[in-house]
Amino acid sequence: MLIDEAIGLVNTEIRILNMQIKYPVQFQNRKNKLPLSPLYLTDETYLIEIMEIVSGLFLSKRVVTRSGTEAPLTEIGRAFEYLFNIKLGDVHKKHESVVSRKPSKITEFLDTLRKAINEESKKKGYL
């Protein structure tokens, strides 16, 4: 009787293993159940540039949580990691790298974004 139960258990395990081999995607344990973002950064974009945006949003206190409290730097960083399929690493260290840069480089990427918007505005005749 116990042998029959053991054999049944082994057969069930074999069926599960066969299913895992046949349908591997269904058995993958994903930590994050959200679908991957369709957006990626170009090779010319550096993580420190994205951190300029993250740091600016954090310091401006313009991003809040669902409950209305200030969004922590790490949460804003995580949102950008998801948005662009990147890993920022230690967000606090990268934040310090942004705010401790030379004055001419402190907002270099944000200045590039501002310039691109101004050029588009001029091209369309708004400026």
Automatic annotation (TrEMBL):
Entry superkingdom: Bacteria
Which Pfam family would be a valid example here? Answer: RteC
State the name under which the record lists this protein.
Answer: RteC domain-containing protein
